[in-house]
Design a protein that fits this description.
Layout lengths: L2 H8 L3 E6 L14 E6 H13 L4 H28 L15 H4 L7
Length: 110
């Protein structure tokens, strides 16, 4: 079954977008084209949002992905720094957990 036949049969309506990357002012020489598929509501929102921010849907998607990539890299760096630290040894003798009766042996619980 082709995509259009499946869309008609199941009532699915997808809009396909082709994101064209164009070199602007020779700042980004290695841009790649990417094809994404969005439902109609998401595509309409993306067009309006991009227009209100004076950009294209292509650039909007690129900036969102670049921001997410930066967040993940920062998280990975923070996790590596945390795991590289030596464990801290607690001082003093180990004490067991309090007994249930000790925890609930208060007047407000009676």
């Amino acid at each position: 079954m082709t995509d259009s036949a499946a869309a008609k049969r199941y009532g699915v309506n997808y809009t396909k977008f082709v994101v064209h990357s164009v070199r602007v002012f020779n700042r980004a020489p290695n841009l790649k084209n990417v094809t994404i598929t969005l439902n109609e509501e998401t595509a309409a929102w993306a067009r309006v949002y991009a227009a209100t921010h004076n950009t294209s849907v292509s650039r909007l998607v690129g900036e969102i992905l670049q921001q997410r990539m930066g967040e993940l890299h920062e998280y990975d760096r923070a996790m590596r720094r945390f795991l590289a630290k030596k464990p801290i040894k607690f001082k003093g003798p180990a004490k067991g957990y309090p007994k249930r009766d000790e925890l609930y042996d208060r007047g407000c619980f009676r």
